[in-house]
Amino acid sequence: MKHHRRKFDLPRHLMRIHEYKMSSEPRGVCLIISNMTFDSPLRYRHGSDKDEESLKEVFEWLGFTVEVHRNQTAEEMKAILKTHGQKHHEGDSFVCCILTHGTTDGVYGTDGGIVTGKDIFSLFSGTSCPSLINKPKVFLIQTCLGKLYQLVPVKPGQEQTLQTYVEIRIPVDEDFLVVQLPDEPFVSLSIQLLCHHLKRYCPEGKDIDFILQRSSLFKPDTQISTLNPMRKRLVFHVPKYEFLKTRKDSSDTSSAVMETLIKNKIFLLNTLSTDASIVLQYVLKDNIITSREYNNLNQPKYTQEQTIINLLDNVMSKGDEACHKFLKLLQREDLQETFPQLKKLFTPDETSQKKESIKRVFEWLGFTVEVHRNQTAEEMKAILKTHGQKHHEGDSFVCCILTHGTTDGVYGTDGGIVTGKDIFSLFSGTSCPSLLNKPKVFLIKACLGKLHQQAFKPGQEQTLQTYDKIGIPVDEDFLVVQLPDEPYYTWGNPMGSSSIQLLCHHLKRYCPE
């Protein structure tokens, strides 16, 4: 395994320097303007109340003071925005969510009047709102407002014109992030998915770019446009009291339920689309959808696949409770008799689970994971030699060896032995200079003697207490971890050895801290 530095990755000691400060209590103001009912011929915006509730919940959880205004005319919207543009902001950031109808000229008030981009953004420039200088200002706009992206790079201090049909000029050095979310009928999947991913990834310290990317890639036909001339990474750090509550709260299980549907969407599409009408009857009977939603979904113009896609989007847009009910439905024997493939979803492959626990957790930690199964001793040596000779650009190297072993070393599948010297000497400073001053971690799950340090002075070599002499220079930044080799996957546990599973669990549990 080698660590691969992603586009926005920085060395750990520089990460916070290149992040916006996000520690004030409260974090700042989150303003939500939600228009559902219109005096003009514009249609009623179904589901906007659900989107509003989800945004309010997630930003309160993130430590913001949330202010909600419903059904505002254009002039009332301008007045609200002006009030916030003129006030003194003590928090570290400002968030504004506008949920309404729109046009290429701007966004609509309930009276059909238009609030232009200039009416919105100019109020929060450094000149108009000095208390937000050098602080991130995030605008989530769920409506049609033209294409929001930069035309060409510009120098700090200059202004840029967004490519849209209305003149929206935002100084590039004003720390704006403008996110355009598509306006979808009924409940907006994009809003619900964004809120879900904020709750999923903010405790892990993921930045807003990562979260927006996840939210847009999930649904191929959903385009989330952004204008992002921000100078630093924007990470919404969860307040400590909320973070602790999140870890202990049963809502972790609920979020996992929605994550299960997201990960298995293609599988469910292929399985359930063989008879979409039966699925609709089941979800209606279990009150997962309403009669009106059933009629909207059960249209002759939709193919079976389109019907299931719309159903899954509808269920996930309703949140964790509906997802939980839907998963319980999929486990019913009568439904599984019609769709026997569903049994695979709830009967995981135990062997692959044991093998993939380490793979999943180190991918989650940002490593590029390379897996080799069932290797002879010579094949193991060749793989290790390849990695010992290559140039490593990442910040660290991790090697996990899961096999049988003896006091002389670890076994290949042919019974041949790979000694400690065969393993560790390949990654010394002399053999692998690209890993100098970088941590080299070896997780070995096999009997290999007692791997612990004896007292020594810097510059000396240490001998691990094992029957095979393994010399590791103390200044080579090695960490060798011997995990006990437990019989029968630890007292009959089919999910893998307890030491590996517990290590993976604690890595996911404590690394975010």
Automatic annotation (TrEMBL):
<protein>
    <recommendedName>
        <fullName>Caspase family p20 domain-containing protein</fullName>
    </recommendedName>
</protein>
<dbReference type="Pfam" id="PF00656">
    <property type="entry name" value="Peptidase_C14"/>
</dbReference>
<dbReference type="GO" id="GO:0006915">
    <property type="term" value="P:apoptotic process"/>
</dbReference>
<feature type="domain" description="CARD">
    <location>
        <begin position="253"/>
        <end position="334"/>
    </location>
</feature>
<dbReference type="GO" id="GO:0004197">
    <property type="term" value="F:cysteine-type endopeptidase activity"/>
</dbReference>
<dbReference type="InterPro" id="IPR029030">
    <property type="entry name" value="Caspase-like_dom_sf"/>
</dbReference>
<dbReference type="InterPro" id="IPR001315">
    <property type="entry name" value="CARD"/>
</dbReference>
<dbReference type="InterPro" id="IPR011600">
    <property type="entry name" value="Pept_C14_caspase"/>
</dbReference>
<feature type="domain" description="Caspase family p20">
    <location>
        <begin position="26"/>
        <end position="148"/>
    </location>
</feature>
<dbReference type="InterPro" id="IPR016129">
    <property type="entry name" value="Caspase_his_AS"/>
</dbReference>
<dbReference type="InterPro" id="IPR001309">
    <property type="entry name" value="Pept_C14_p20"/>
</dbReference>
<feature type="domain" description="Caspase family p20">
    <location>
        <begin position="336"/>
        <end position="451"/>
    </location>
</feature>
<dbReference type="GO" id="GO:0042981">
    <property type="term" value="P:regulation of apoptotic process"/>
</dbReference>
<comment type="similarity">
    <text>Belongs to the peptidase C14A family.</text>
</comment>
<keyword id="KW-0053">Apoptosis</keyword>
<dbReference type="GO" id="GO:0006508">
    <property type="term" value="P:proteolysis"/>
</dbReference>
<dbReference type="Pfam" id="PF00619">
    <property type="entry name" value="CARD"/>
</dbReference>
<dbReference type="InterPro" id="IPR015917">
    <property type="entry name" value="Pept_C14A"/>
</dbReference>
<dbReference type="InterPro" id="IPR011029">
    <property type="entry name" value="DEATH-like_dom_sf"/>
</dbReference>
<dbReference type="GO" id="GO:0005737">
    <property type="term" value="C:cytoplasm"/>
</dbReference>
